[in-house]
Write a structure and sequence with these properties.
homodimer; alpha/beta; Aspartate Aminotransferase, domain 1; Aspartate Aminotransferase, domain 2; seven-stranded mixed sheet; four-stranded antiparallel sheet; 13 helices
């Protein structure tokens, strides 16, 4: 009696619930402190105290009807201006409020831009492995997500594979940098090569291939790595951002979609995106959070929190003989499964009370994802279990 | 280069912007205090002070990582329980957290339920006139919205017309009570007749026709009117709610979708809706607002604020000779245009600095919508202009 494709949706949900319930059962059996859960990507660096202070200041200093009221669907003009100016200062753009559509996080930003761009059957390319929700975001707009394998050694984009994959139905390339699930931070020279491919193929197709950049992890980078600013490399780039990770406020749903004036069909594209946002029921980004963010543009949660985990984990796993490309961003480590059977690896890890994400779910079997957005104590407590797992695979 | 149907979206947006800009030009010419703007449905009863107090209490008393963090996509369990228990106390249900999906307002609730229910080409019926965004909400899910004329005298539902309209493709009836744009509050005996039609036609079709009740104005009722609780009249009813109007916080995007256990295909329907919500990018309702609402379930903004406007306006317009069914709910008055030409009426009103909504946009030409969610002073200041308009139409 429901829509026919809901079977698929419910099945997808069931796998996640089954994992979650396995974890709960395990916790009941061995105690929650003995479950080494590296399966969830929930930011857990503490919320900076400046954030709650900003909420209080908004309530104290701004008019309630204004703070909690409707505004234009794209967001409060002063907030959009502040976001634009912050981007200008950091990345050397010339953005204004007219380029910034405030959204309830990066997920709506992605849904909005795909609905704005795609006709039924249009294709969006993405480097694999990739965040599995992308499949839905593109399908919600009637499109089809087509993975293109990233370089299997570095997990950087592969411009040559991209060129081969761009057929007449391709409308956009989706890039997630820093990357979930690999933790890779894409290098500028490689992204320039990607931009060259897009430029060349756009010319031969006689229309722009848009670059959609999903950047919720932009601020989570380590050892001097930095995610290049894609709009400065390729004019037809739109950027989705969320403060979920940089301020550790994922429940609040606050972010933006940036549509630079350099995009083909600007400003029509912005008007369309704004209308899509309203009619899809997003209406506007939560108002108190918009007012709060305006006061927090120079505040970040502590990246050192994740970096300590990263360093401990990388050193220990490497010493145990595991293989992986050292992550430079986000809070994920992408581990190569010794014998290539990632489903079996996840099961064996579970027998040591370790919860991991099977790479198959990210479009890349033979690998597992470790989310290290956990307490440092959990990392330390998990190391003996990883050691046992390494021994089972005779890694040394 | 954008999706082909974006022309339609942009055109729709252009009409609204053109009206808005006409209003701005008028304000520059005659001064904003002399523009009688009755075109916007923005709640403006003051935000109850308890609301900001509740936000502060959440910040002071609850853990920041919890308050701003991810929770299950359906919302915080304790918030969902509190909402369920509040509904039980008020409407005599037996709801639990398992029936409550917290959403970013009623608009996402509608989008989520239609995506959950509709296959491409499925039809949703609605009594006209109706809120124009419904067309998009249904179309976003691949469905088609089909208006059924309400009783043209009372603007109550017309069960006979409904029976005639239910063909084999009809999956649901959408009801908005209290009603935008008419201000009608649907009567229980009429809704019972509607439920009887749905029951009878569901039986003959061999599958349930769902009743989708959009109730953002539920608390805005006058003179003892009350919107009947539809799930107690028809088992296959789902309810979308928003606190936008009852607390005057429309920017915050907080509401819920209630899926009673009596619905056919429960709990599968709830699981599907929850997955739709996540994959459509809504992810979860804003977390601080969820925590706040839990503390505000017994708080309402002042309905008397709108009632005073309503009484002043009804008395004055009636004395001038205008005709309308006196509104009992929401904050809209639905005026019959004397000669039936609503586009001309809107233009003539504009020449007296009055901004109105043409009924054509609500699927019902020959009427105009007055939104009386304005200050009482604005009502009083507008009366001479309405008097002049009445004289032009020789109403007395």
């Amino acid at each position: 009696m429901l829509a026919k494709d809901m079977d698929l949706y419910i099945a997808g949900g069931s796998i996640i619930r089954a994992m979650f319930e396995d974890g709960l059962r395990l916790a009941r059996r061995v105690g929650p402190e003995n479950v080494h859960d590296f399966s969830l990507g929930n930011p857990n660096s503490p919320v900076p105290p400046e954030f709650n202070d900003a909420v209080r200041a908004v309530l104290d200093e701004e008019d309630s009807s204004f703070v909690h009221g409707y505004m234009t669907n794209a967001g409060y003009p002063d907030v959009r201006t502040a976001v634009a100016e912050d981007l200008n200062a950091r990345f050397g753009g010339d953005y204004t409020a007219e380029n910034v559509l405030m959204t309830a996080g990066a997920a709506p930003a992605m849904n909005i831009i795909f609905r704005t761009l795609l006709d039924p059957g249009d294709e969006v390319l993405v480097f694999s492995p990739f965040f599995p929700e992308y499949t839905y975001y593109v399908r919600n707009a009637g499109g089809v997500l087509r993975p293109v394998s990233a370089d299997r050694r570095t997990f950087q984009p592969d411009p040559k594979a991209l060129r081969a994959a761009i057929g007449p139905k391709v409308k956009a390339l989706l890039i997630n940098n820093p990357n979930n699930p690999t933790g890779a931070v894409y290098r500028e020279e490689i992204l320039r090569a990607v931009a060259d491919v897009l430029t060349e193929r756009s010319r031969s197709l006689g229309r722009p291939i848009y670059l959609v950049s999903d950047e919720p992890y932009r601020e989570l980078v380590y050892e001097g790595a930095a995610a290049p600013w894609l709009p400065s490399l390729y004019p037809d780039t739109v950027v989705g951002y969320s403060w979920s990770k940089s301020l550790s406020v994922p429940g609040e749903r606050i972010g933006y979609l940036l549509i630079p004036s350099s995009c083909a069909d600007f400003p029509r594209m912005f008007l369309a995106a704004m209308t899509v946002a309203r009619t899809a029921g997003y209406v506007n980004a939560p108002s108190l959070m918009q007012r709060t963010i305006r006061r927090c543009l120079d505040v970040w949660s502590d990246v050192g929190f994740y970096d300590r985990n990263r360093r401990t984990l990388c050193t220990a796993l490497s010493d145990m003989g595991f293989r992986f490309a050292p992550p430079e961003g986000a809070f994920y480590l992408w581990l190569k499964v010794p014998d290539g059977d990632s489903a079996a690896f996840v099961r064996r890890a579970f027998s040591h009370n370790i919860l991991l994400g099977d790479g198959t779910g990210f479009g890349c079997p033979g690998y597992v994802r470790l989310s290290y957005c956990v307490s440092h104590e959990r990392i330390l407590r998990a190391l003996p279990a990883f050691e046992m797992l390494a021994n089972e695979y005779n890694l040394k």
